[in-house]
C-alpha cells in the first residue's frame, strides 16, 4: 500500500520533472548493475568520431554513485525543477523543455572548454539559479543552518559543494548559464528596444503544450443557438 501511494504521488508530479528525475535515478541504478560511468561521460571524440551521441544526454543524468552526494543532488533537482514547472512555467511545458535544451547546449560547450565529464550538477545549479531570480523575495532555510533570500541560494550551494570537496567549476557553469537564460528571457525583453530572443520552436509547442493548461488561455465563446 505504501508503494502504491508513493507511485500515485509520483504520478502527480509535473511531466518534465517526473521524466528528468526518473531518468537520473534509472541511470544511477543501471550503473550499479549494467553500465559503467565510462559509457556515460561526455567525450567529444567519442560523440563526433564514434557517433556515441547518447553521451550528450547521459552527461546530464549521472550524479555519481549512490551516497550522500547523489541524494543531495536529487533532492535539489526534484524540488526546484518542480517549483519552476508548477510556477513560472505552469502550462508551458515546451518552454520549459526548451530551457533545458538551451542550457544543455551552452553547458556542453563550456564543459568541453573546462574538461568536465558530467554536467548534471551544472544543470541543477541552473534550475536553482533561474528559480531564485524569479523568486527574489522568498526566504530559504538552508538545512536549518542559514536563513536568507532566494537569490543567495545558488552561491550557498556552491559553497556547500566546495566543503564536500567537489569542483566549484561545475556549479559556476550552471550559474553562468542560468544567468544568461534569465537575462535573455526576463531582463532584456523588458529593456527599451529589447525583445524576446529565445523563441521556443513551434514543433515543441505542438508536441508538448495543451493550450487549456496555459494560464493565459482564454476559450472561445460558444456559439449561441439561434432562437
The mean pLDDT is 88
As for the number of domains, it is 1
DSSP summary, beta strand count: 2
The H-and-E topology, N to C, reads as: HHHHHHHEEHHH
Widest sheet: strand ordering = 1-2
Number of H- or I-type helical stretches:
10
Poorly predicted residue ranges: 217-227
CA-to-CA gap between the ends? 56 Å
Class per helix and strand makeup = mainly alpha
Output the radius of gyration: 19 Å
* Helical fraction: 55-70%
Largest sheet: 2 strands, antiparallel
> Approximately what portion of the residues adopt beta-strand conformation?
under 5%
Shape assignment: globular
Multimeric status of the protein = single chain
How would you describe the overall organization of this protein?
Keywords: Endoplasmic reticulum, Membrane, Transmembrane, Transmembrane helix. It is found in: Endoplasmic reticulum membrane. The chain is mainly alpha-helical and 227 residues long. The chain has one domain. The chain contains ten helices and two strands. The longest helix is centred in the middle third of the chain and has 21 residues, at 93-113. It is globular and about 50 Å long. Mean pLDDT is 88; it is low at 217-227.
In short:
The protein is mainly α and 227 residues long.
What's the SSE blueprint?
Elements: H1 2-11, H2 15-33, H3 44-48, H4 55-58, H5 68-86, H6 93-113, H7 120-134, E1 139-142, E2 146-149, H8 153-163, H9 168-187, H10 202-208
Antiparallel strand pairs: 1-2
Helix pairs in contact: 2-5, 5-7, 6-9, 6-10, 7-8, 7-9, 8-9
Amino acid at each position: 500500500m505504501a508503494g502504491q501511494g508513493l507511485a500515485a504521488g509520483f504520478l502527480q508530479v509535473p511531466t518534465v520533472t517526473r521524466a528528468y528525475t526518473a531518468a537520473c535515478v534509472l541511470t544511477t541504478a543501471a550503473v550499479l548493475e549494467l553500465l559503467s560511468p565510462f559509457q556515460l561521460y561526455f567525450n567529444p571524440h567519442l560523440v563526433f568520431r564514434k557517433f556515441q551521441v547518447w553521451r550528450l544526454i547521459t552527461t546530464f543524468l549521472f550524479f555519481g554513485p549512490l551516497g550522500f552526494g547523489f541524494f543531495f543532488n536529487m533532492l535539489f533537482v526534484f524540488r526546484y525543477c518542480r517549483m519552476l514547472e508548477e510556477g513560472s512555467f505552469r502550462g508551458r511545458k515546451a518552454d520549459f523543455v526548451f530551457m533545458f535544451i538551451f542550457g544543455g547546449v551552452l553547458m556542453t560547450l563550456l564543459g568541453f572548454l573546462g574538461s568536465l565529464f558530467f554536467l548534471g550538477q551544472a544543470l541543477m545549479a541552473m534550475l536553482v539559479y533561474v528559480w531564485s531570480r524569479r523568486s527574489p523575495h522568498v526566504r530559504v532555510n538552508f538545512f536549518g543552518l542559514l536563513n536568507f533570500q532566494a537569490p543567495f541560494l545558488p552561491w550557498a550551494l556552491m559553497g556547500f559543494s566546495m566543503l564536500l570537496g567537489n569542483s566549484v567549476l561545475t556549479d559556476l557553469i550552471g550559474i553562468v548559464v542560468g544567468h544568461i537564460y534569465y537575462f535573455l528571457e526576463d531582463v532584456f525583453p523588458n529593456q527599451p528596444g529589447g525583445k524576446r530572443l529565445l523563441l521556443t520552436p513551434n514543433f515543441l509547442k505542438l508536441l508538448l503544450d495543451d493550450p487549456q493548461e496555459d494560464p493565459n488561455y482564454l476559450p472561445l465563446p460558444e456559439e449561441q443557438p439561434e432562437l
